[in-house]
């Protein structure tokens, strides 16, 4: 949105009041009325239209601000379409069920918390959804932990930590795609750059859960075995189903563009599906659009595997379009530029900018309770400052994920917090101290910002340069 020219120059106090009013409309609706974010964003657009007209701004200019803002999300929207197709094709080829099946083989009563973290991490990566992981694998692990007489708070903390690690590092994740697209960074460049902060956070978390885990073998793994049997009943467990994963890794290593990587993987996965199934062309097209439907009769398995398709991404796509339209209008009416100009007098260094980015993403999560908006609004607001300081935009996309995506499950009134409390049966405030990965991720990214380690200048991408 850096190319949007403001047509209004409000004073700092006026801009602050307008922005707080917009955040109030959104947060009040989402938290107080439990509304999906789309409606309060539309209400905010109406509010800004009225404000713009009251300041004698032509409606054509207002409309242009929304349109130009939405156009900035076309790259993300294309990726989301391909992600929906990839999830469907990975289910058809058996890739996701096979990874889950063999992942269960590693579950042991010993070091249970650490294993729960590892298993949900794997699930999050292959599924690309933290909430789906928690609602399926997480629920099973909660049952096992309860049967063992273990702490439900620590078990839930391990599940949340693993689910959001997997979501954060998965090329199938909508938040990962959103963070990379909003600042125009290649998806796999973004994921590789996140490894600098995410891998240390993962190792620390694994060690902590290893130390917290009891050494016991007195437990009934019946619930987990039933999940594994349910996966086996699908007829999708095959060694060749792992080929798409290996192909994905190879394409990432060779730095193949994200859309091309996904397209190749979709074609190969669909081809592999014909080795164990025979869908008619119209049925294949239906699955690719509406998603794969599992019919094993095992509720938890059907819930886990019934997903994917272009249609499954429409909620996110529509939210992205509306949010970017909101951002475009905020820029057009001069709200964000005025505030950024004021802030830029303070943010004269990379370390302060990264700290402010992280705090803004956390703040929006606390105020609005929506992780998409924390990524979108913060990303749009700080792009110009990173450009001004010569910082590579992948520093921004990484900070958005480290302090935006993983904080949402820690907020009791947030979308993720409410959902996780409901499905796991553990209050957000109870598992919060043990969601180790989510707690230390923003700390590490802020620490890197202050030390300058792995913070790269845009002109010298291959050589990390510390920001002053």
TrEMBL record:
Belongs to the NhaC Na(+)/H(+) (TC 2.A.35) antiporter family. Keywords: Antiport, Cell membrane, Membrane, Transmembrane, Transmembrane helix, Transport. It comes from the Bacteria. GO terms for molecular function: antiporter activity. The keyword Membrane applies. This is Transporter (NhaC family). The chain crosses the membrane at residues 12-31, 37-54, 66-91, 111-144, 194-212, 236-254, 259-279, 313-340, 352-368, 431-450. InterPro entries: Na/H_antiport_NhaC, Na/H_Antiport_NhaC-like_C, NhaC_Na-H+_Antiporter. The lineage of its organism: Bacteria, Bacillati, Bacillota, Bacilli, Bacillales. Pfam families: Na_H_antiporter. It is a multi-pass membrane protein. GO terms for cellular component: plasma membrane. Residues 162-453 form the Na+/H+ antiporter NhaC-like C-terminal domain. It is found in: Cell membrane. Coiled coil: none annotated. Its main location: membrane. The keyword DNA-binding does not apply.
């Amino acid at each position: 949105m850096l190319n949007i020219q403001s047509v209004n120059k409000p004073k700092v106090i006026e801009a602050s009041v307008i922005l707080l009013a917009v955040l109030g409309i959104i947060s009040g609706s989402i938290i107080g009325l439990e509304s999906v974010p789309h409606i309060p964003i539309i209400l905010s657009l109406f509010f800004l239209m009225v404000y713009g007209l009251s300041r004698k701004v032509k409606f054509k200019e207002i409309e242009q601000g929304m349109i130009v803002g939405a156009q900035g999300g076309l790259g993300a929207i294309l990726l989301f379409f391909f992600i929906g197709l990839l999830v469907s094709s990975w289910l058809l080829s058996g890739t996701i069920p096979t990874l889950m099946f063999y992942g269960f083989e590693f579950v042991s009563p010993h070091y249970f918390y650490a294993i729960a973290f590892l298993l949900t991490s794997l699930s999050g990566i292959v599924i690309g959804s933290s909430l789906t992981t928690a609602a399926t694998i997480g629920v099973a692990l909660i049952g096992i932990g309860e049967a063992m007489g273990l702490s439900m708070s620590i078990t839930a903390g391990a599940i949340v930590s693993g689910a959001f690690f997997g979501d954060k590092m998965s090329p199938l994740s909508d938040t990962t795609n959103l963070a990379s697209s909003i600042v125009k960074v290649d998806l796999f460049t973004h994921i590789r750059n996140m490894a600098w902060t995410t891998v240390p956070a993962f190792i620390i978390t694994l060690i902590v859960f290893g130390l917290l885990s009891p050494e016991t073998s007195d437990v009934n793994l019946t619930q987990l075995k039933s999940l594994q049997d349910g996966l086996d009943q699908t007829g999708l467990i095959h060694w060749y189903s792992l080929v798409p994963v290996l192909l994905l890794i190879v394409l990432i290593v060779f730095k193949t563009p994200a859309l091309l990587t996904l397209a190749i993987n979709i074609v190969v996965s669909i081809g592999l599906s014909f080795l164990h199934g025979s869908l008619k062309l119209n049925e294949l097209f239906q699955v690719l659009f509406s998603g794969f439907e599992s019919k094993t009769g095992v509720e938890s398995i059907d819930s886990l595997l019934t997903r994917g398709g272009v249609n499954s991404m429409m909620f996110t796509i529509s939210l992205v379009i509306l949010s970017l339209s909101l951002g475009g209008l905020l820029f057009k009416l001069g709200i964000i530029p005025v505030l950024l100009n004021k802030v830029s007098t303070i943010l004269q260094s990379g370390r302060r900018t990264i700290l402010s980015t992280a705090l803004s993403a956390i703040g929006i999560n606390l105020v609005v309770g929506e992780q998409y908006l924390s990524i979108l609004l913060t990303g749009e607001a700080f792009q110009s400052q990173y450009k001004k300081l010569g910082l590579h935009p992948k520093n921004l996309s990484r900070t958005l994920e480290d302090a935006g995506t993983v904080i949402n499950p820690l907020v009791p009134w947030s979308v993720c917090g409410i959902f996780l409390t409901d499905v796991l049966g553990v209050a957000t405030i109870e598992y919060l101290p043990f969601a180790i990965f989510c707690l230390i991720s923003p700390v590490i990214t802020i620490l890197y910002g202050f030390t300058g380690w792995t913070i790269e200048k845009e002109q010298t991408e291959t050589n990390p340069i510390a920001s002053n």
